[in-house]
Amino acid sequence: MPTQLLQPPLKADVVRSLAAGTEVRITGVIYAARDAAHARMVKALEAGEALPFDLRGAIIYYVGPTPGGPGQVVGAAGPTTSGRMDAYAPALIERGLAGMIGKGDRDAAVVEAMKKYGAVYFAATGGAGALLGKCITSQRILAYEDLGTEALRELTVEDFPAVVAIDAGGGSLYRR
Amino acid sequence: MRKISVRSIEDALFDCIRQSSFDLGPRELDALRRARDSETSDTGKNILDQLLRNADIARTERRPLCQDTGLAVVFLDLGQEVALVDGDLTAAVNSAVARAYTELHLRLSVVAHPLDRRNTGDNTPAILHVRIVPGDRVRLRFAAKGGGAENMSRLAMLTPSAGRAGVVDFVVRTVRESLANPCPPLVVGVGLGGNFETVALAAKEALLRPLGEPALDERDAALERELLAALNSTGVGPMGLGGRTTALAVHVASRPCHIAALPVAVNLDCHSHRHGEVLI
Q1: What CATH number does residue A146 fall under?
Q2: Can you give the residue ranges of every domain in chain B?
Q3: Would an 8 Å CB–CB cutoff place A159 in contact with chain B?
Q4: Which residue on chain A is closest to B146 by alpha carbon?
Q5: Are A6 and A25 in contact (CB under 8 A)?
Q6: CB-CB under 8 Å, B54 with A131
């Protein structure tokens, strides 16, 4: 299967066309958030507040990078365990989130939301922190700066490698 | 008595953290190359290729191998003929960790209290295990333990009737149920026997052995071979996406135990397997 090149924001037909097992390279703007940032985003949505970025077509990467050394945008930036974000993901998917990048399987509620609203889950290689960190060409903190490595960030990535692990039809590479 | 400055322990630990965070060991590289050559899944092969490229980028560009640069775990075997001078040993260990994690731009991943979760700001305190042994030297071993692999580690107080089959089943189930979370291909430390607290320590210490070096006790070494074969036929594969490379090595460490007990602990480590050893 050829590698598919993706540029967020993702359009609905592109999301629906991606099948589990497809290798992708992502170029463009994505958003970094882990546990604590997710808790705050969902709290904000429940309070009727707007998020610091447009969720429609957006991709969120579950990552807490190391600070960059001299001349580096970030140091290492591989995915963290996605399951910890399962409690928050459906609320974001419902409001237009189109892609998530992380490692490991998702729960049934997340997969149901992905099918219903059209979203795709990408797996990046856990522990390939240096390789994935090198794909990040710029970053800025959007919100929740007090969370340190867990702050909400906007990342620009170039040729970021991932594989479609669960598609918008519920097809999955994980054995359940 | 031989005098050893706690500063020399601090410096040795700093070097261990620096080396293991950026340079994948030769045994680990070798194991990944062999795994890539024998992997049958395309996704699995692709992941193993990425991990080899990752090691190359980490070494040449001085980026950490993984963004989870871990909790610092230190084992010190202190010769009983050694007098430690120049200050507090625990403070020296924590000073090495604080300096290494801040100066080398590693991630600060420690919170002061498990419930209010405020970051300590310098990745301390380290987890320090000190043991008094014969001799006039200090043996320092270090492991950087990431959250993903540690979270999927398990301990079971089995009873003797569970036997060898019960042990194998528990280890295989622990790995199979953890799927991608601990970042396979894994290094699996298995503690067998002892009691509730020492079995976990045995599992952790087993991880510190050079990768793939068999246990000295032939019964443990035979169990290692059986477990490695069983884990690599689960189909979990690299990053849980299928394949035959689920574990790079299994290290078993057994201890005498109570007539009523068969404790087992499984301490998982990811493929980065960051560890170091220095003799002072």
Answers
A1: 3.20.130.10
A2: 2-20+65-145, 147-273
A3: no
A4: A127
A5: yes
A6: yes
pTM here? Answer: 0.93
Task: Answer whether B68 sits within 8 Å of A80, measured CB to CB.
Answer: yes
The one-letter amino acid code at A39 reads A
Q: Is residue A176 part of a domain?
A: no
Give the separation between CA B236 and CA A174, rounded to whole angstroms: 9
Q: What is the mean pLDDT of residues B61-79?
A: 97
Interface test with A, best of B43, B48, B66, B103 (most A CBs within 10 A): B66
| Window B:117-156, CB contacts with A under 8 Å | 119, 147-148, 151
A66 has a chain B CB within 8 A of its CB: yes
Residue A161 lies in a domain: yes
Look at chain A and report how many structural domains it folds into. 1
Q: Which domain holds residue A96?
A: 4-171
CA–CA distance, A67 with A32 (Å, rounded to integer): 14
Residue A101, in any domain of the structure? yes
- The predicted-structure confidence for B207-233, as pLDDT tens digits, reads as follows 999 999 999 999 999 999 999 999 999
Helix extents (H) in B39-117: 42-61, 89-103
